[in-house]
Design brief:
Length: 206
């Protein structure tokens, strides 16, 4: 977890928080990360190698925690799959955890809004929460185009916010607020979603 803490406490990621209240109040028009750094998170990374390295290390750290648990709980999902593509992969750690030999992994550059490589299954982990509904639907349509109709699978790994937390005095309500604020500070249109909100994206997407 050290890489995640180092990323979130870095000057790059902390700076947008200072403009968040101004953004909410309508005193600045651009998303706060873009207002502070002159470009969005996804453009900033490639232009700043040290930050990009730290970002990828944090995402890899998360994958090492999350992916084994997903594999263990959903082992049947992965049976019969010969090829798997990890969309929005960063440095590919999540996919490497799914294969026995690293030389079976092929890195394919590109834009997930334009094209997703053909495979039996698509894994998309903690990517959709970075984008608004219409953008998520666009990504998921590309994922659907990449898989065969008969056995293709799109495996989505994301948080699902419990709507009951909105109605009850629950500690998880503050967790949702924190997650949403992180999205507001670091992305242009991202947000965490309830099951109902995910239903809208999935029904209109694949």
């Amino acid at each position: 977890m050290a890489a995640i803490i180092l990323l979130e406490s870095s000057s790059v990621m902390l700076a947008p928080w200072h403009g968040l209240s101004a953004r909410i109040q309508g005193n600045i028009r651009n998303p706060v990360f873009e207002e502070v750094h002159g470009e969005d998170l996804w453009s900033f990374g490639p232009a700043n190698p040290s930050h990009n390295k730290l970002f990828n290390e944090a995402m890899a750290c998360d994958a090492r925690v999350v992916v084994p648990a997903v594999i263990e709980s959903c082992i049947e999902v992965f049976k019969g799959l010969d090829t798997v593509v990890d969309v929005g992969t960063g440095n590919g750690t999540a996919l490497c955890l799914l294969v026995e030999e690293y030389d079976r992994v092929e890195n394919v550059g590109g834009d997930m809004f334009d094209y997703v490589p053909k495979a039996d299954a698509v894994i998309i982990k903690w990517v959709l929460h970075d984008w608004e509904d219409d953008e998520c639907i666009s990504i998921l349509k590309k994922c659907r185009e990449a898989i065969p109709e008969d056995k293709g699978k799109v495996i989505i790994i994301e948080a699902v916010i419990d709507e009951k937390d909105e109605k009850e005095d629950s500690e998880l309500t503050n967790v949702r607020l924190m997650l949403d604020m992180v999205m507001m500070a670091h992305t242009n249109t991202g947000k965490e979603r309830t099951l109902k909100e995910w239903g809208y994206v999935l029904d209109d997407g694949p």
